[in-house]
Amino acid sequence: MGKEKRLWGTIGVAEMSAKVINYYKCLKGNRNDVLAVFLLCTACADNFYQDATVTWGDQRAHIQEGGRLLTLSLDKISGSGFQSKSEFLFGRFDMQLKLIPGNSAGTVTTFYLSSQGAGHDEIDFEFLGNSSGQPYTVHTNVYSQGKGNKEQQFHLWFDPTTSFHTYSIIWNAQRIIFLVDNIPIRVYNNHEALGVAFPKNQAMRVYASLWNADDWATQGGRVKTDWSMAPFTASYRNFNTNACVWSAASSTSSCGGSKSTDSANNDQTWQTQELDANGRNRLRWVQQKYMTYNYCTDAQRFNQVIPPECKRSRF
């Protein structure tokens, strides 16, 4: 039970019981091995009722289907959003999204990790809406100690409004990997040896939101939100966290140890995950065909001084 204690050590008994009940559902009624529940529970989809809190938007956020689905809406008065109840220090975070169909210009739908405070860390997926028939822009960014400016943007190779697709963030002490339907689109490596800050010391929650940003989101703010199309609705489901839960009260992680602990102490795959040859080929394909902006090639923005991490491998 050493491994199981490490996974669950900072989770209260009541919360654990609720999770076990939920994860039995993932096992489709197989109750023959209680230990299997504990070993699999970080790989099952979380329940929005149990694991998320609607934080703003009044009645514009709705949890449905017994906690498996959450919808966010935006109208001219307000958007909406939610956050995870737990904080995490490293992990794999998956969310299935179906984005706003039709004319979504001016809107931003998000799925991201963030700590709090002026020197916060943040790992972003933002989906920038567009006029009907024009593609969404997937905006990614990484903040460490309050500093970002690490943007890469992409178009998608499918219509993200007709069905659900899975967007994932893998965050360990060595790197951050952004994936779409398990295809890597970006790797951000830890280059602290070059003097580049990396988010590894601040626990983060999972956040999601839908809001109006028509001053910049679509074609640099040239296309505004058409409020006659409101309310705009984005859908989230299968929120999955396979991660180290952080306890602020005891300053410990469910994976063992305290802040700055090497994530390799736990044998979960994401702890040391990097791209294999197939992953590198897929990343090349995405970046060659679908990348629309890369801060590493924007020399004018940085006065011809390219950030040091941009001189290293993109893998």
Q: Which SSEs are present, and which pair or pack?
A:
Elements lengths: L1 H7 L4 H14 L7 H7 L7 H4 E5 L4 E4 L4 E6 L5 E5 L2 E12 L8 E8 L7 E7 L8 E7 L8 E3 L10 E7 L3 E6 L2 E7 L15 E8 L19 E16 L4 E2 L23 H13 L1 E4 L21
Antiparallel strand pairs: 1-4, 2-3, 3-14, 4-13, 5-10, 5-14, 6-7, 6-13, 7-8, 8-9, 9-16, 10-11, 11-12, 14-15
GO cellular component, one term: apoplast
Main location: secreted
Function: Catalyzes xyloglucan endohydrolysis (XEH) and/or endotransglycosylation (XET). Cleaves and religates xyloglucan polymers, an essential constituent of the primary cell wall, and thereby participates in cell wall construction of growing tissues.
Question: Could you give the order of strands across the largest sheet?
Answer: 1-4-13-6-7-8-9-16
User: Helicity, in percent?
Assistant: 10-25%
Q: How would you describe the shape?
A: globular
Largest sheet, in brief, is: 8 strands, antiparallel
Order of helices and strands: HHHHEEEEEEEEEEEEEEEHE
Q: Unreliable runs, pLDDT <50, ≥5 residues?
A: 1-44, 260-267
The average pLDDT score comes to 86
- Structure classification: alpha+beta
Straight-line N-to-C gap: 36 Å
**CA radius of gyration:** 20 Å
Continuous helix count: 5
Strands, count:
16
Assess the beta-strand content as a share of residues.
Answer: 25-35%
